Amino acid sequence: MKAYDGMYLGGAWRPAAGQDVIEVVNPADGQVIGTVPAGTAEDVDAAVRAARAALPDWAATPPAERAARLAALRDVLVARTEEIAETVTAELGSPLKFSQAVHAAVPIAVAGSYAELAATYAFEEKTGNSVVHHEPVGVVAAITPWNYPLHQIVAKVAPALAAGCTIVVKPAEDTPLVARLFADAVHEAGIPAGVFNLVTGLGPVAGQALAEHPGVDLVSFTGSTAVGRGIAAIAAGQVKKVALELGGKSANVILPTADLAKAVNVGVANVMSNSGQTCSAWTRMLVHRDQYDEAVDLAATAAAKYGERIGPVVNAKQQARVRGYIEKGVAEGARLVAGGPEAPRETGYFVSPTVFADVTPDMTIAQEEIFGPVLSILRYEDEEDALRIANGTVYGLAGAVWAGDEAEAVAFARRMETGQVDINGGRFNPLAPFGGYKQSGVGRELGVHGLAEYLQTKSLQF
């Protein structure tokens, strides 16, 4: 176990204001692997002041120079790929291969995309007799989750820096070690002092202090809808801008003309990825009544293969939460065809890959975000019924449609109330905007649309 000291403030590691620490636990075995300082309002204030002091010079830095710093950051992350993957595996429990392929590789791609965007984006444009300037919004508070700990940091830091903003990051208390590694990478990349700052701590203390701080111009938060509502309420009191990426209950709609086996197998893999701890996971599989029994058999067979392949969920509380939802599904009449609430191992916070059949749209497991390896399969009568079910939750973050004809799938996807839809297994695109409808959030991340969240406009008339 290692005790990590200090907060990254104003370009250096500085002592924390208080003495309290947070224990970081490896969820695969429940052992403490390190401690980090539990930040206070005093630490947050120091971080915001550092960001505020650095803002004028960084905002005035030419975009090409900001792009060069982001490119340098990407290169440092590339050099530290193995260290990143091993760190995420230790504190999140993700299998090492997944940590390498996703937790390390995706943030590198995102950082690179913003290095290119910073160099090419039109920060000034002419319209009629006006010149429109796109300027940094100011100091950003980034409050990030544990499920994709480095990706969620980079998805906020990279566009903020590209825009000319300065930033304070408060990472999730379960996965702060990769955030500290990232701070070292920022330092090595030569990003000026105060442009990036890191405060570790608990959400109700450091997170709330950061959201409430009058020196913050924008709060970018990824996490639960409940916490997102609280942050929005805080920001409203100061008329402060927010970007909220919240919960999801995404539908995977398999139309009758689709390749059923492929659609089911990819759908199960999507739900089991990252132990089900993905806000955009397709946790509701919608299948036509004539193909339903076959789809259930295929899903049960596919899920059984993941028993030894997925890692644990992040902590004991999350394990209990997911198992509670599984028990709720059984109690409400859904049929277990794979997995169940029993813990599959004696040590660690593991949950069995679970598949429910005979799920109805009104059941709790069909309406609420579980955030674990749990799939619900729902039957639909016709396309209109499928659309009603797909759109029948308070969420609208992501989804998928499968059909034999791409145009058929696209036509259905256009009617889904959700921010992103994969067509016939479409690949992740780090340049495409990501964000939700309804209670899945406000704003977008990634690509040019993600950059726009960190900009404000000023028009000059001539």
From TrEMBL:
Domain Aldehyde dehydrogenase intervals: 13-459
The record ties this protein, via Gene3D superfamilies, to: Aldehyde Dehydrogenase, Chain A, domain 1, Aldehyde Dehydrogenase, Chain A, domain 2
Q: Which domain of life is it from?
A: Bacteria
Write the record's keywords in alphabetical order, separated by commas.
Oxidoreductase
Q: Which GO terms describe its molecular function?
A: oxidoreductase activity, acting on the aldehyde or oxo group of donors, NAD or NADP as acceptor
Identify which residues the record assigns to the active site: 245
Q: Where are the transmembrane segments?
A: none
Pfam families this protein is in? Aldedh
SUPFAM superfamilies, alphabetized: ALDH-like
- Asked whether the keyword Oxidoreductase is assigned, the reply is yes
- State the InterPro entries in the record: Ald_DH/histidinol_DH, Ald_DH_C, Ald_DH_CS_GLU, Ald_DH_N, Aldehyde_DH_dom
Q: Which family does it belong to?
A: Belongs to the aldehyde dehydrogenase family.
Know the name of this protein?
Putative aldehyde dehydrogenase
Name the species this protein comes from: Streptomyces afghaniensis 772
